[in-house]
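Here is my example:
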Amino acid sequence: MMPGRTKRSFALYSLVTTIVEQAILVIVLLAVLPRFGIGIPVWLVVVLSLAWAAWSYFAYRMGEKVIGRTPVAGPEALVGVRCITTTPLSPVGYVRAGSELWRARSISGDIDTEVEVIISEVKGLTLFVMQSSDMSTSPSSFELPTS
């Protein structure tokens, strides 16, 4: 999905929910509470509505900052990471990426144990890797943080 479209959808959603929240607030303050003998002055309703609108705008601005950001975790963040094989990949085995053990499939033939590989793709819970010496232009080294 395009980032601009996501931001527009988020803005529309935020606007609609803020209007609904404001309507519920006004109904409760002016219609429901007086039935229980609780009178709220109109100026207080206005102040509470403005405070709620300010809070909604603040929450919208905070949410807007993260919409469309590139993920820093998850499968997309693993592409390009260098890791070490823990079992032979012929063509399937296991690699250690950071402190995690992942199932891997070699896309560059059989690979021995304790060989550095680079993750080229992630499908489900399987990493597709190639031996780092197979790369014609080696990308800069990426390392996963160890916990």
Notes: DSSP finds three helices and five strands in the chain.
